[in-house]
Design goal:
Helix content is about 40%, strand content about 15%. It is α/β, with parallel strands linked by helices. It starts with 6 loop residues before the first strand and ends with a helix.
Length: about 300
Amino acid sequence: MMRAVPRAAVNGIELEYDTFGSRNAPPLVLIMGLGAQMILWEEDFCGQLAERGFHVVRFDNRDIGLSSQLDAGGIPNVFEVMQAAAAGKPVSAPYTLSDMADDTVALMSALAIDRAHVVGASMGGMIAQTLAIRHPRRLLSMVSLMSTTGDPALPPPTPAAMQVLMTPRPFDRAGNIASGLEAWRVIGSPAYPMDEPTMRDLFARSFDRGYHPAGVARQMAAIFASGDRTHALGSVTVPSLVIHGDADPLIPVAAGRATAAAIPNAELLEIAGMGHDLPRGTWPILIDAIAAHATRAAARAA
């Protein structure tokens, strides 16, 4: 792993980031999900993508980890936000997914990257979709992983997964880690058992880097304020791959299918027994799919 610089000043904020692999290789930007720090793109995962011939960039989204915290935006009432969205009412938020997509483009510019392959997981997939809509010239290809179009008519999380999403995590270190593990047992992949020591370490490092629940609330408000992308996705020309686990309890597989159906010529890969996580057992499938998709996109563009 090569650490680039501690932070990049972008879009009026600062983003913490890492890079892996040769700077001369095709860039591949990884975008993590709601409340998730960049370290959930594990170093070995990034390293294996770098070994496939990519210059890999991972970063903390705004309001999470070691990137800028936007506390001046206040703390949204998540229940009220969800109720307003369910009723079809406008949702007010300090920022939207469009702002977060613009952050990504600004980070690319700060790193002298004109165009990149982009992979987004969960909320990161929503940001990747927004990039394909707003900034198609900056993308070589796009992968939307365990994500959704934002269509409110799609199936909701299971009751257990919804409880995980809405239950505040404890502020003490031990309780926070234990809560994270319990949540992962609910949303994780039934066919790929959780590696508890690895996940315990990830939750511990996330807590130590910076536990910031107010930022998570603002990110959630951004999701609901950004609405349904289905119609806009119909204009996407970026080569797109949608990957989704068929056992995802948080964002059911129907959302992945809807995403692939909304994007012209998108490919869909469903992974049997995969939930809403990135267990090591899925890495060969994911890395092969991401690398092959990027290679095909590059060949078509040549």
